[in-house]
């Protein structure tokens, strides 16, 4: 009897690429001998309920088709189980796929490689972050970057990523560091002025911004990148370095490693995997080997 796997599809990912990607991915998996069923929810909560039901019923793998938002939903269904998670990465950011060195924007090829990996049991257990029962795979953002997300999410126009470019400009105009209290494993609270604090299980967010460039998915620790008190001019100089990860050498940047991180700052929202978690204070824990992923 052929294995049954579940495609978990976001029809809006990448401006419709999620829906278009599902068919060639499913065809590749069926051609490899798998029985494929598709989960397509009416909204995120309905989709998650269906994905959890598929996992509970014993599906042999959950394959998320979309971007980081879809991965975030899928993680809520598979974290803490032994159900493997595969990824057909067709979103706009794809930072989780980058962290795992998975292919992007080629659903048929990704489907074939996932099929081969499942047959060969090429699987990997990786760490996840967890905040109040919500799992995340890449980065928890707080500070300037989360304020940009807040502003961009409030803007109805323009559509797409351009509104976040405008949000960056608006936040830069009003820029000032924020008073943070950060508590790591040692229990010592650090009172600092910071531009942003990023808690990284994975290395990047925002579509390849390597804010926690040295983060390791299997070391049981977060990389906590702190961009300290700096001027607008300094921020503009440091910001372009984030794409290569070379910002970590700048004097205003420090990196800490910890399994538990508590963040407190007034008026700051935390975002993980690009999704809002809620206002600080928040406590993040790194959970070793929390999810099994399919290597494609």
UniProtKB/TrEMBL annotation:
<dbReference type="InterPro" id="IPR017438">
    <property type="entry name" value="ATP-NAD_kinase_N"/>
</dbReference>
<dbReference type="InterPro" id="IPR001206">
    <property type="entry name" value="Diacylglycerol_kinase_cat_dom"/>
</dbReference>
<protein>
    <submittedName>
        <fullName>Diacylglycerol kinase</fullName>
    </submittedName>
</protein>
<keyword id="KW-0594">Phospholipid biosynthesis</keyword>
<keyword id="KW-0808">Transferase</keyword>
<keyword id="KW-0547">Nucleotide-binding</keyword>
<dbReference type="Pfam" id="PF00781">
    <property type="entry name" value="DAGK_cat"/>
</dbReference>
<keyword id="KW-0418">Kinase</keyword>
<dbReference type="InterPro" id="IPR050187">
    <property type="entry name" value="Lipid_Phosphate_FormReg"/>
</dbReference>
<keyword id="KW-0479">Metal-binding</keyword>
<dbReference type="GO" id="GO:0016301">
    <property type="term" value="F:kinase activity"/>
</dbReference>
<keyword id="KW-1208">Phospholipid metabolism</keyword>
<dbReference type="InterPro" id="IPR016064">
    <property type="entry name" value="NAD/diacylglycerol_kinase_sf"/>
</dbReference>
<feature type="domain" description="DAGKc">
    <location>
        <begin position="1"/>
        <end position="135"/>
    </location>
</feature>
<dbReference type="InterPro" id="IPR045540">
    <property type="entry name" value="YegS/DAGK_C"/>
</dbReference>
<dbReference type="InterPro" id="IPR005218">
    <property type="entry name" value="Diacylglycerol/lipid_kinase"/>
</dbReference>
<comment type="similarity">
    <text>Belongs to the diacylglycerol/lipid kinase family.</text>
</comment>
<keyword id="KW-0460">Magnesium</keyword>
<dbReference type="Pfam" id="PF19279">
    <property type="entry name" value="YegS_C"/>
</dbReference>
<keyword id="KW-0067">ATP-binding</keyword>
<keyword id="KW-0444">Lipid biosynthesis</keyword>
<keyword id="KW-0443">Lipid metabolism</keyword>
